[in-house]
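Database export, one record per block. Field names are fixed; values are copied verbatim from the stored entry.
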Amino acid sequence: QLERKSVIEPPRRLVDMVGKTEAQRLVSRAVSLAQASATIAEGERQSLTDVAIHAGNRLSDLKEQAGEVNEELQKRQARLDEMQGLVKRGVLRNTRLENAESNIFIVRNRRDQSLRDATKAEFELAQANSAVKRFDAERQARLAKQISELEAQIDDMERQIASAELIAGVMGSRATNSNVGLDAVKYQIVRRAGGDARIVDANESTLLE
């Protein structure tokens, strides 16, 4: 999704943590990085795909070529069989038969070489297709890792914010308790008149005398 879209709404949990503007900035940066990575990856995949296409076309040409040579070989073999019968009856000279056999030998070598080339091309095509599949699998693994890392970063931000809020809450509670303690302090003055002692409530500005 990051690779295909230029604008993506940030996750609600991210917005709640850092605000709409900062969340959008973080997401936009992630999108830009993902798109740059995707462009490079698409180029690499296209190169691998081109190799596979070339190997497939070559294999198709070689199979067609091998089929044509094999057809020619069958025709020559049928002609050779006829010539052998003519030689036995003395109608045809051995020289022409030998030439035909030599030509068949050449054509058979061409057919065998075409089959070997086709087998090699099949192996190359299989390797090229495997390379494309392996690239796709590795790319998916990289994307999954990137998503996991992004989620881990968001989780870490959540923990940091929760920790900061907890500390702020504790500090605020201590400050409140401290103020309550100061407000709760009471002052009293003992005054003596004659032989009697009398306790009088006072405050910070009450005169002692």
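Remark 1: The first strand starts at residue 187 and ends at 193.
Remark 2: The radius of gyration is 46 Å.
End of record.
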